[in-house]
Automatic annotation (TrEMBL):
Protein name as annotated: SDR family oxidoreductase
Native source species: Chitinophaga hostae
Classification via InterPro entries: NAD(P)-bd_dom_sf, NmrA-like, NmrA-type_oxidoreductase
Residue span, NmrA-like domain: 2-258
PANTHER family xrefs: NMRA-LIKE DOMAIN-CONTAINING PROTEIN, QUINONE OXIDOREDUCTASE 2
Gene3D superfamilies per the UniProt record, alphabetical: NAD(P)-binding Rossmann-like Domain, UDP-galactose 4-epimerase, domain 1
Annotated CDD domains: TMR_SDR_a
Top-rank taxon: Bacteria
Length: 290
């Protein structure tokens, strides 16, 4: 059996991958990478190998990657430093002769710099290019926006105050991190995915008008959706005490949705799962206890 290494395993996506792997293969076949191994103690207790490694430290990645057949490479969450971190990962994977790298990239409609989230997309494009030029066997998983991010976008008071977001009429093919993680595990345990690129998304795209309608139906209240200018939105977040960096990021993602950057529904996730992904409606029902 192949030795599989999952990075980012203490986060929601990586954790979902590992839990699905444990349901379908022996713990001896699985390893996880953690900057702080103590945080992965639950996995170690289940027999999973815990390896210490940091994307910022190339030297720490080399021994962790030795003998690995399949690497599930979760993209870093440091937007500014992600490019250099990913260079370390790809370089170490080449040096350690990793058999196959599965990389969590991002869905996008445009690659010409016109997207409001170019600052996010750029590092992913760079990493994809590195993998393709590396000689490594790769699979690129272009993740659409997590349904799990909806509470952050619409706020925990949405049932009282409605949705205020500059996303216009744009739609998103949301899918949950749990379903994306399960799909990743199935790909890791399967075959025939060499040098493939997959859109990992819901099979239907929804606007925030649609989200408001779902919440209205679920709650029995009338939930409104207002799409202000991005400037007014960021100003309101700043007034509410949201740090400027976060306000900018949320505003940029909303603007990219208005640009239809994430209106990319696809049936690949359903095909990999062998079932329908969790619906946005069901996710909202659970997330807001409706």
């Amino acid at each position: 059996m192949s030795k599989i290494l999952v990075t980012g395993a203490t986060g929601p996506l990586g954790k979902a991958v590992v839990e699905e792997l444990l349901r379908n293969t022996g713990a001896a076949n699985i390893a996880v990478l953690a900057r702080d191994p103590v945080k992965a103690a639950d996995f170690e207790a289940k027999g999973v190998t815990v390896l210490k490694g940091d994307y910022n430290d190339y030297a720490s990645l080399l021994p962790a990657f030795e003998g690995i057949d399949k690497l599930y490479f979760v993209s870093g969450n440091d937007v500014q430093g992600r490019g250099a971190q990913h260079e370390n990962v790809v370089k170490a994977a080449v040096a350690a002769k990793v058999g196959h790298v599965f990389y969590t990239s991002v869905s996008r409609r445009t690659e010409d710099g016109s997207s409001a989230i170019t600052f996010v997309v750029g590092a992913h494009l760079h990493t994809e290019a590195l993998l393709k030029a590396s000689g490594l066997t790769y699979t690129i998983l272009k993740h659409n926006l997590y349904a799990d991010m909806l509470p952050a976008f619409i706020g925990d008071k949405v049932l009282e105050s409605g949705i205020y977001l500059p996303a216009g009429k744009g739609k998103v093919a949301f899918a949950t991190r749990n379903d994306m993680g399960i799909a990743g595990a199935k790909l890791l345990l399967g075959s025939g995915h060499e040098n493939k690129v997959y859109e990992i998304a819901g099979d239907t795209a929804y606007s925030f008008d649609d989200i408001a309608t779902m919440l209205s139906d679920l709650s029995g209240k009338t939930i409104t959706y207002i799409s202000p200018s991005t400037e007014d939105y960021i100003a309101q977040l700043s007034t509410a005490g949201v740090p400027g960096e976060y306000a900018y990021v949320f505003g940029a993602f909303a603007q990219s949705i208005a640009q239809q950057e994430l209106d990319l529904p696809d049936a690949t996730l359903e095909h990999i799962l062998g079932r329908k992904p969790e619906s946005v409606n069901d996710y909202l029902k659970k997330a807001f206890s409706l």
